[in-house]
Amino acid sequence: MAGAKAVLVLSSQLGADDWARALCAADPELKVRVWPEVGDPGDIDVIIAWAPEPGQLLGFPNLKAILSLGAGVDQVLGLPDLAELAHVPLCRTVDDGLSLGMTHYVLLHVLRYHRRAPELEAMQRGHEWRFLVADAAAETSVGIMGLGEMGGLAAEKLVDLGFAVRGWSRSQKQLAGIDCFAGAQGLGPFLAGTRILVVLLPLTAQTRDIVNAETLGQLPQGAYLIAAGRGGHLVEADVLAALDEGQLAHATLDVFNSEPLPTESPFWDHPRVTVTPHNASDSAPGQVVPKLLENIHRARAGQALLNQVDRRRGY
Ligand code: NDP
Ligand code: OXD
């Protein structure tokens, strides 16, 4: 296979041709193929993918690495193919631009709730002039589930803006200005003091369905939900019930059980739901390609890869 090594890009959702072009522009020597033009499967030593279809990762005898275009890898880890590929490392995307984009999304929607934008918009629709003020930021508690690349930066920026920030993670953290909670025993106390809940967890066996009647019921009444991790975190019927009962005042949802969100979903027309189309943040090829190239070189040189996923942990 010497001399014939090639990278295969497969992503129907994320513009595989654009990624292939960006890779070739950054490294003109690199041989890049785009699914389904695979050529000789024996040439393919690295696959770059977002959400492969079952079977798409199989049949490449010289595969050395799978590089995910997502920060989350549940859409790859969920494939039955992975059992046969236990020897092939899987890496995810970690990118400052992606974290910053997510931070903008979180700030946009936290500020929207903090400054009572939904009420102000309703007042405008009703031609109602009433002096409506926000609480002090220090009295508005924002709780972030997941203090990793996404949640960590968003939490830091919310602290800078004066909010009372708390975070929940798997392992205990000590972060300046943030009230940190961890593990199953930390979840209840974390939720009890959270007015605006931001979900930025990876989707794993432990976090699936974590936003449910029981956890929502532990928030103070009239809390807000901002969900931008994965749709599998949400028990959607419980979110709707919490909205209808007033346990949740409003929800901003970027991720759903089924995407694209089905046209018949009650979320579309719910007066207290903001729907965004899984666009909270995005990786720009220009920023991510150098990291993909670094991992391709490392895989070919037999070196440790960057941002390798711990498959047992699920993220
Ligand atoms: P990281 O792996 O950097 O961080 C994950 C965080 O979640 C860590 O703090 C981790 O804890 C915590 N966590 C994981 N499992 C548990 C658990 N069982 N209990 C408590 N905490 C847990 O991921 P990122 O921040 O890079 O990304 C998070 C997710 O955001 C992605 O998996 C993806 O699903 C989603 N995403 C969504 C986008 C969108 O546009 N909507 C864009 C990009 C990402 P610990 O620190 O202890 O390991
Ligand atoms: C990601 C995403 O995981 O865009 O990167 O959701």
- How is the biggest beta sheet arranged? 7 strands, parallel
N- to C-terminal distance: 32 Å
The total beta strand count reads 12
Radius of gyration: 21 Å
Sequence stretches where pLDDT stays below 50 over 5 or more residues: none
Q: How much beta, percentage-wise? A: 15-25%
State mean pLDDT (0 to 100 scale).
Answer: 96
Binned, the helix content reads 25-40%
State the order of secondary-structure elements, H for helix, E for strand: EHEEEHEHHEHEEHEHEHEEH
Q: Strand order of the main beta sheet, please?
A: 8-7-6-9-10-11-12
Q: What is the 3D shape?
A: elongated
> Which small-molecule ligands are present, each listed once?
NADPH dihydro-nicotinamide-adenine-dinucleotide phosphate, oxalic acid
Work out the helix count.
9
Helix-strand makeup class: alpha/beta
Q: Can you describe this structure?
A:
- It is a single chain.
- The chain is of the alpha/beta class and 315 residues long.
- The chain is 30% helix and 17% strand.
- The chain has 9 helices and 12 strands.
- The protein has helices at residues 16-26, 74-77, 96-114, 117-125, 149-160, 183-192, 213-217, 236-244, 285-301, and strands at 6-10, 32-34, 44-49, 65-68, 90-91, 141-145, 164-169, 178-182, 196-199, 223-227, 248-253, 273-275.
- The strands form 2 sheets. The chain has a 7-stranded parallel beta sheet.
- Strand 4, helix 2 and strand 5 (90-91) form a beta-alpha-beta unit.
- Helix 1 packs across helix 9 (285-301) and helix 3 (96-114) packs across helix 5 (149-160).
- 38% of the residues are buried.
- Bound molecules: NADPH dihydro-nicotinamide-adenine-dinucleotide phosphate and oxalic acid (OXD).
- Oxalic acid is lined by residues 70-72, 93.
